[in-house]
Amino acid sequence: MNRDTHSPKRFLIAALALFLAAGVFAAPPASGSGAGPGQAGIFDFSLRVFGPSSPAAFSASAANPADTPSVFSADKGKLRITINGQAVGSEDFEISPAGDAWIERSSMSAHVPGGGEIKAAGQLKLSADGSPIRYDWTAEAQKKATGYVDFASGTAKCSADLGAALPLRKDFVFPSPRIAVLDNNLYYHFGLLARLYDWKAGGKQTFPVVIPQDMVPGTIAVESLGPQQAGNGKYEALRVSSPDLEIMVYVDASRHMVRLEVPSSNVTIERE
């Protein structure tokens, strides 16, 4: 398993990266591995996840019993992406039950000032307790990249096709099957993270996380801050943090994400 998750990296992709620098928490490939699949990502990140640690560190990682009610509820909508108050793109999302599982679909399009259109899409299949089953993604700016991650018993089997002769593949093993999937380019995944959070327990909780495009494992910290004013309303606030960044996620009474803020970048993602 790749454990070299502590040094920052930068991807030289579109200028849109400069203001969406908080989309997710990235880290470098293992030394000597060459160019990593993260170069397929649309946004530029110079962030770090916390390195993988012992099973005891994952305070919210225990799998729920099979008869536990789903942590999800049906949701559908559109997110508006703004920087310094200027709209630059949007994301359509939907999550709904599919038999014993749940399917979440997101598609994002944004326009880089002075550049071209940027597009990304993902489909995530989840168990009722929040454990991912499979994730399929595409990202397209100057080039198109595709990939998938299969999950089984805490193992994430990642594949990324960047147009080379052979796809890139990596496997990561986690101490829990309840892994947060955070796509480089899609923001509703932070809404799914809010559903994994144990609101009754409260406090700071850590989650294992995988970033599909970068094939990067690690953990992130999530902490409830209680009701907070955000935009024109007051919502339950979650602080999502890595060593380099803080993201605020706001949810309504149904635990649906209504707003995401990156204070350091003046980025706001808001439900329309």
Walk me through the topology.
Layout: E1 75-83, E2 86-98, E3 101-111, E4 117-127, E5 132-140, E6 144-152, E7 155-161, E8 168-173, E9 180-181, H1 189-196, E10 204-211, E11 216-230, E12 233-241, E13 246-251, E14 257-262, E15 267-271
Parallel strand pairs: 9-10
Antiparallel strand pairs: 1-2, 1-15, 2-3, 3-4, 4-5, 5-6, 6-7, 7-8, 10-11, 11-12, 12-13, 13-14, 14-15
| Amino- and carboxy-terminal Cα gap | 40 Å
Q: How many structural domains in the coordinates? A: 1
- Give the strand order, joined by hyphens, for the main sheet: 8-7-6-5-4-3-2-1-15-14-13-12-11-10-9
Q: Helices and strands, in N-to-C order?
A: EEEEEEEEEHEEEEEE
Radius of gyration: 17 Å
Structural class: mainly beta
In terms of DSSP E residues, the strand content is over 45%
| Spatial shape | globular
Estimated helix fraction: under 10%
The number of helical segments is: 1
Q: Biggest sheet: strands, sense, closure? A: 15 strands, mixed
- Sequence stretches where pLDDT stays below 50 over 5 or more residues: 1-48, 53-57, 60-65
Q: Average pLDDT, to the nearest integer?
A: 80
* E-strand count: 15
How would you describe this structure to a colleague?
With 272 residues, this protein is an all-beta fold. The chain has one domain. Helices cover 3% and strands 46% of the residues. It is built from one helix and 15 strands; from the N terminus they run E-E-E-E-E-E-E-E-E-H-E-E-E-E-E-E. The chain has a 15-stranded mixed sheet, with helices on one face. Strand 13 (246-251) and strand 14 form a beta hairpin. Mean pLDDT is 80; it is low at 1-48, 53-57 and 60-65.
